[in-house]
Specification:
The chain has one domain: HUPs (Rossmann fold), CATH 3.40.50.620. The radius of gyration is 17 Å and the shape is globular. Helix 2 runs antiparallel to helix 10 and helix 5 packs parallel to helix 7. The longest helix has 14 residues. It has a six-stranded parallel sheet with strand order 3-2-1-4-5-6, sandwiched between helices. It has ten helices and six strands. The chain is an alpha/beta fold and about 200 residues long. Pathway: Cofactor biosynthesis; NAD(+) biosynthesis; deamido-NAD(+) from nicotinate D-ribonucleotide: step 1/1. This is Probable nicotinate-nucleotide adenylyltransferase. Its EC number is 2.7.7.18.
Length: about 200
């Protein structure tokens, strides 16, 4: 099997998250996409609701798609021990006979190439990545300008995807709309929209 690990805050999960996962799965012939909400304990994340609410919304959003699965591995880790390298090692052990891919945006590829991630060398050496285009980022240039990335570019490590459509509706936009009593209804799954209204999240 080919499995994509899709980590994000999902605060809240949006239709763009679902569309991105679907596009990546179709283009890369993935058999499964695992939605991996990050931990609220992480110092580099400023989250706007609880792990419980984010977890509930992700599960609601994906419940009708057999290709999608949610996993709370990172939510359960201590903040000091959450690293992508360790997370991917966990899933490689969980699925020893399958191909594991980390799904990320080109902006994160830049950061890894610059050595900003924990154990960047081991992370790139031991894993495979599906990298989605971001506006104004030349992914091939990012790889060629980073000794770390280009020396591990064996034709299999990085699968570069131009989604072909700029959908930049963000979770922060949706949060702002809820906070200002706007109407973001069709930017996220209907079940999540109703859940946010019911629990008065992002007020």
């Amino acid at each position: 099997m080919k499995i994509g690990i899709y980590g994000s805050s999902f605060d809240p999960v949006t239709n763009v998250h679902l569309w991105t996962a679907s596009t990546v799965a179709h283009r890369c012939k993935l058999d499964k996409v695992i939605f991996l909400p990050c931990s609220s304990k992480r110092k580099d994340k400023q989250l706007h609701t609880t792990d419980e609410h984010r977890w509930n919304m992700v599960n609601m959003a994906i419940q009708n798609n057999a290709l999608y699965e949610a996993n709370d591995y990172e939510m359960k880790q201590e903040a000091w021990d959450v690293y992508t390298e360790k997370t991917l090692a966990h899933f490689s052990e969980l699925y020893p006979d399958d191909e594991i891919y980390f799904i990320m945006g080109a902006d994160l590829l830049e950061d890894i190439g610059a050595g900003k991630w924990h154990n960047s060398e081991e992370l790139v050496r031991d894993n495979r990545f599906i990298v989605m285009a971001r506006n104004d980022i030349d992914m091939l240039k990012v790889i060629s300008h980073s000794p770390l990335l280009r020396n591990h570019d064996d034709g299999h490590t990085f699968h570069l995807i131009d989604k072909g459509l700029a959908m930049e509706i963000s979770s922060s936009y949706i949060r702002d709309e809820f906070a200002m009593e706007g109407e973001p209804r069709y930017l996220l799954p209907e079940s999540c929209y109703q859940y946010i209204k019911e629990h008065e999240i992002y007020k």
